[in-house]
UniProtKB/TrEMBL annotation:
Species of provenance: Arthrobacter gengyunqii
Record's keyword annotation contains Methyltransferase: no
PROSITE patterns in UniProt: ABC_TRANSPORTER_2 (PS50893)
Protein name listed in UniProt: ABC transporter ATP-binding protein
InterPro entries: AAA+_ATPase (IPR003593), ABC_transporter-like_ATP-bd (IPR003439), P-loop_NTPase (IPR027417)
Coiled-coil ranges from the UniProt annotation: none
Keyword Thylakoid: no
Amino acid sequence: MTHAIDIRSMSRVFGRSTALEDITLTVPEGSICGLLGRNGAGKTTLMSILAGQDRPSSGTVEVFGQNPFENEAALSRISFVRDNQRYPDGYRLHHVLRIAPEFAPNWNADVAAELVEGFRIPGKTPISKMSRGQLSSVAIVLALASRAPLTLLDEPYLGLDVTARGLFHNMLLRDYTEHPRTVVLSTHLIEESEALFDRVLIVDRGRVRADCGSEETSSLAFTVSGPTEAVERFSEGRTLLASHTVGSLKSATVRGTADADVRAQAQTLGASVSPATLQELVAGFGSDAAAPEPVRIRKGARA
Ligand SMILES: Nc1ncnc2c1ncn2[C@@H]1O[C@H](COP(=O)(O)OP(=O)(O)OP(=O)(O)O)[C@@H](O)[C@H]1O
């Protein structure tokens, strides 16, 4: 399998703060990977390094087999759109659309025009005066119309209304299907975006906590709920990622697979088991109770 991203033993330290610690991971070509984790988990730092805007303190990073840092050939294959994207003073939309193809060899003006119309991005307003959602819209136009082999989207949803979010999802999936590429998308809107992902990377405090295909997340953890005593008895000897108690009822996210034995045991105790949602997994792997060892499940990428 060809890897778009290959990271080995990579760390990024800022003074006394370790933003990324001993990261080893690969992302196969032709996948949409959700990069998920709590605030400060290390998502933006990871994307900046992949985009050649920062370099690791140790370890190696390869994008399509090359180190992206100060590497023009590698950077021409990467589109990185971040939430605080800056534009030159006085720039309006038409300036951006005119200059973008110079940096994006696969630029598609039809995709850009369709998105500009759908997002209702004003042509006359200077970019510096645009609303938060309009800025996100411009960033998404750049990201999708670039059709870069590696597209990095860091929190693309900030300020976007529900219609604009739907347009983004539809265009991403449509254009990705017609022109396959590798996309890494970080977001805190997990429920809304999870249908996009065929891979999921969960990071917390600079470390990879889970790395698997999206259809395999159900084997990482499950939720058990019921009377507090039943859930506590069921949880004995198991690894809890998180738990919540409301009145006499308790719900816990438990590491492992909910096989027939697990379900039967819960039922005997008067508790019930259901698959953990992706949101519960991210919250669980970001909790202080989560064990530090990463869970990796490697299978093929989407065809
Ligand atoms: N230039 C820097 N100097 C010092 N510390 C930094 C720097 N950049 C990032 N960090 C620290 O590295 C850690 C990871 O930050 P990062 O921005 O990558 O997190 P994130 O997962 O993108 O968070 P969020 O979801 O809040 O955007 C944080 O603790 C942050 O304070």
